[in-house]
Amino acid sequence: MKKIILSILLVNLLAACATQKPKETASEPAAAPAATQAADTGTAQAAQTTTAADAAAAAAAAAAAAVPEVRSVYFPFDVDAVQEADRATVQKHGEYLGKNKDVKVRVEGNADERGSTEYNLALGQRRANNVKKMLILSGAAASQIETVSYGEEKPRCTEHNESCWSQNRRADIVYLSK
Fold it and tell me: Cα–Cα distances in Å, from 151 out to 3, 139, 158?
């Protein structure tokens, strides 16, 4: 009986490994305005107006535009697990980091003012580490991400009520300049 089960598992494993992923179709890049002008005028010199520096600047602008806007992940009281509502945000950042290997981020864990300083520092670190794990699972490299905990030291709101505390229980994804 064990041999039959083991054989079935082995056949399924080999079948799964043998399947090929569908190839992605490459789309033709859009023509640059200078190239279109060169085609219209027939001069080769107009096509050379797009230099390597212009292309690099355009690529950098496109990469910067692709950075997800929402950069904070919020947590319930005394919880360090990323909530379902914020998972898509973290996954978008992970995908972006996966496509841009030269970009680095710092995940800053925070807590509200309730609890001891030591406890809040540890809670902020656990929150930052959990966001880092999800970023890695979404495509980022561990070398792109550093974590730090500020505990209760960097509040967004300083009032003493639940609506304010909920703003302070967060992890911020901060993109670092080169």
Answer: 55, 27, 14
